[in-house]
Design brief:
This protein is of the alpha/beta class. The protein has one domain: Glutaredoxin, CATH 3.40.30. The protein contains 6 helices and 9 strands; from the N terminus they run αβββααβαβαβββαβ. A 5-stranded mixed β-sheet has the order 5-4-3-7-8, covered by helices on one side. The chain has a two-stranded antiparallel sheet with strand order 1-2.
Length: about 220
């Protein structure tokens, strides 16, 4: 990701380290250019967009004004995404958030035919098999929304307050690792941001460097 470094965790074993290098080092190379294209800045209004879900329903960010919205860039073939889904971490956070009235939009900005660009039926199967619970799964086949937000990795997370202000952008948590055992001791930045919004307090960590697999624009 240009000159930016990911959030660092403790040393991993050699197998975990190799997997992590294969998965998210390509994302490091694209952070600089993608960030330069980004129109989003924490503390300012999140740009509106329109995408269609797996059932053909149109979703506009502006339709959810008044509600907290989480944007999660995802790729079913990414090992880091797999870590957070197979462990139950991402589905649990989705369920917790949506139960509190948060709108959770999972977005796949992979270009057609790229690894992880699942057709609707296959994407539905993946969501069911992993117990996923987003409000909607959206395909951004032209990469327009991903580039608009400067999304570089999967997962790349954004939290938008009810008034449309972007309050968090970055990684899901504080430990850039492919090891699921790191999840319990990591700080979950998304949950922390949602908690802060619900309590009417400032988000303590409003930005971080996303880690994961590079988005296949």
């Amino acid at each position: 990701m240009g000159g930016a470094a990911p959030v660092r965790g403790p040393p991993m074993n050699s197998a975990g380290s190799r997997l992590l290098r294969l998965c998210f080092l390509p994302a490091l190379a694209v952070l600089g250019p993608a960030a330069a294209r980004s129109a989003v800045t924490v503390g300012q209004a999140a740009p509106d967009f329109t995408l269609t879900d797996l059932g053909g329903q149109v979703h506009r960010l502006s339709d959810y004004r008044g509600k907290t919205v989480v944007l999660e860039w995802t790729n079913p073939r990414c090992p880091i995404v797999g870590k957070h889904y197979r462990s139950g971490n991402m589905p649990a956070l989705q369920r917790l958030a949506t139960a509190q009235g948060v709108v959770w939009l999972s977005i796949n900005s992979g270009n057609p035919g790229s690894a992880g660009d699942f057709e609707p039926a296959r994407a539905q199967d993946w969501l069911r098999s992993n117990g996923a619970a987003p409000t909607a799964y959206l395909r951004d086949l032209e990469g327009r929304v991903g580039r608009l937000y400067g999304a570089t990795a999967t997962p790349n997370m954004f939290v938008i307050a009810g008034d449309g202000t972007l309050v968090y952008a970055g990684a899901i948590d504080s430990i850039a690792s492919a090891d699921p055992s790191d999840i319990p001791r990591a700080t979950n930045y998304v949950k922390a941001a949602l908690d802060a919004l619900s309590q009417g307090t400032a988000v303590a960590v409003p930005t971080s460097h996303p880690y994961g697999c590079s988005i296949k624009y």
